[in-house]
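Sequence only, no structure available. Ideas?
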Amino acid sequence: MKLDRLLSIIILLLNRKKVLAQELADQFEVSVRTIYRDIETINQAGIPVVTHQGAGGGIALMEGYRLDRNLLTDEELATIATALRSLSTSQAGPNPELLLEKIASVIPESRSMDFDIRSKQLIVDLSSWGRKGQLEEKLKWLSDAVERTLSVGFTYCSPDGRTSERIVEPHTLVLKGQSWYLYAYCKQREGFRFFKLHRMRDVVLLERQPFERRAVSPESLPWNAEWLSPERSSVRRMKLVLSFSKSSKHLAEEWFGVEALSDSGDGRYTVTEYYPEDRWLYGFILSFGPEVEVLEPWHIREKIQELAEATAHLYSGADRT
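Reply:
I predicted one. Tokens follow.
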């Protein structure tokens, strides 16, 4: 985990006068190139790190610099601790306990109990139910590729069943909704694309194809802007009106939120949302079974009826001998 490594490097530099880049690389099992990128990141964060060349050289904090123990408040440190625990539930990686212990070490003993309560009052478990297996492996490989700026090759399976071979420059891993995505520059499409990890297979790190990161700011959530861009105008988002039975009200609340439900006055509840029409949408509606009815648009209602009848025919055994 990069944050763990960065803070560990800072603590080492605070406790030691000087350290070699190769020593740090060996300790954290990364390349010397990665260590120097880390040092640049630390410098950009406002902590002055200098490198000394030649015999007796190494990496050190600027002479006279000391990290103020009060740089962060207890509440801010508790927020960091909560974020670290949350991140550790979502991907394979180093155990955060060592880093959490380092953070706790700067809290005076008189306030340690209050800090412990603050840092554990909110638990964010980003992991999926059941085993994650292959997803964890993909996250580990892709995180490594992003950090080392290595291109990645994989086969991508689109929602309509088509497959394509891709080579991309990975920039950012994104947890959006309940799914993991890779935001990367696709060499075949000559532009940034959003790839769902569950639709990627045969992921390979291309050790001989490093790349230079492009000018993109993840903080601006560019994938959201691209979804609404004119280039995607062919993806028509239509008004969808669904009617839920009283017994399935809880399902509608879980998916859309209690504010989205309107009482129809006949014991049912309606929800109005906007979605692009594709196979995912049909499957999403069918996943509610008989608990939901499509009110608008009419052609979607007819499509769901057609698919439901085909499913019923499949299970009726009419064509089986």
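The chain has a mean pLDDT of 79.
Hope that gets you unstuck.
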